[in-house]
């Protein structure tokens, strides 16, 4: 049986996720993957480094679309992806997560009657001020195959009517491809990464932190509260923050003073070494907060509503609204946590293979019907 899958990626976390399924695809004969990079993230340290380190094949199409408003970006992507889909005529469109690239690709494919595979489906934090939440709802609703990472993802879709027979979509919990990636690349990271030596962190205690959600960076009061909080904590436990370009520009334009260690965004191997060595993880990233769990680190998550409530309910993560006063209280709770990490909320590191085998059986069933 031959099968053509067209994958669309555009942002840093999608390169990590695509690395896992792309590797699984290359192990199978008869499957051909076309990779489209929308260009949403394009800097060497936000894009190229992931392709090199994770051995992701070079994209077949580079659309170079970035730096526009949400509407303009999604519109341009929709137009360009439609052209690629019409040319390539894939059996499936494969998309990850909740970015504008995910939404644009799903809309383009749906109108062309190409079945959509959505990996990381069913995630909800019920905050519709977040562009990501809107993208999640819409792409789940359009996808023929929705792959959730956890039982809660399946429950969310059940509540939205996915199992009533009225929505033409199959839903599975196959585990999280980010868990596969963390386990698979951890050994390579230990061999290749020199970040701990470079930052003189060998044997040292520190906090690894990331902040990049527009809801935090683009709200001056929240960003100020976060920076002041990090300055305070840094007095007792050093903080290392690989700074996302958007956050850097907002800190500069607000004229905020930072007293913690800021570095440029790092590659995936360096990032997981920093996470493995850190005492705590502070973040507003849905990917980094899961990696904290994979590497058994208690985490502090900066958003009004957690993206992964599983981690908060399980006692692995403290969720805190990024507001003055609440942040310190959250940190005090974090240092009291005694998490039991002997659980497998996100599966056992074989999500990529399971997802691919579900796609293959879906394709075989469709082929036998036609
Ligand atoms: N990451 C990285 N270098 C960094 C910061 C993050 O490699 O400097 C990785 C991180 O390990 C995770 C992914 O990027 O695998 C998460 O991406 P991001 O936080 O941009 O997106 P989100 O997960 O919030 O959608």
Question: Could you write a compact summary of the structure shown?
Answer:
This protein has 370 residues and is an alpha/beta fold.
How is the secondary structure organized here?
Blueprint: E1 3-9, H1 12-27, E2 31-37, H2 44-53, E3 61-62, H3 70-88, E4 92-96, H4 100-111, E5 116-121, H5 131-142, E6 145-148, H6 151-159, E7 170-173, H7 177-192, H8 195-198, E8 207-210, H9 214-217, H10 220-234, E9 239-242, H11 245-254, E10 261-263, H12 268-277, E11 280-283, H13 286-294, E12 299-302, H14 309-313, E13 317-320, H15 326-334, H16 351-369
Parallel strand pairs: 1-2, 1-4, 2-3, 4-5, 5-6, 6-7, 8-9, 8-11, 9-10, 11-12, 12-13
Helix pairs in contact: 1-2, 1-7, 1-16, 3-4, 4-5, 7-12, 7-13
Bound molecules: uridine-5'-diphosphate.
Count of helical regions: 16
Taken in chain order, the helices and strands follow as: EHEHEHEHEHEHEHHEHHEHEHEHEHEHH
The main sheet orders its strands as: 3-2-1-4-5-6-7
Radius of gyration: 20 Å
Through-space gap between termini: 14 Å
- Strand runs, count: 13
Low-confidence runs (pLDDT<50, min 5 residues)?
Answer: none
How does the helix and strand content classify structurally? alpha/beta
Shape: globular
Query: How much strand content do the residues show?
Result: 15-25%
The average pLDDT value, as a whole number, equals: 96
What report would you give on this structure?
This protein is 48% helix and 16% strand. It starts with a strand and ends with a helix. The protein has helices at 12-27, 44-53, 70-88, 100-111, 131-142, 151-159, 177-192, 195-198, 214-217, 220-234, 245-254, 268-277, 286-294, 309-313, 326-334, 351-369, and strands at residues 3-9, 31-37, 61-62, 92-96, 116-121, 145-148, 170-173, 207-210, 239-242, 261-263, 280-283, 299-302, 317-320. By secondary structure, the chain is an alpha/beta fold. Helix 2 links the parallel strand 2 (31-37) and strand 3 (61-62). The strands form two sheets. A seven-stranded parallel sheet has the order 3-2-1-4-5-6-7, with helices on both faces. Bound molecules: uridine-5'-diphosphate (UDP). Uridine-5'-diphosphate binds next to helix 1, helix 12 and helix 13.
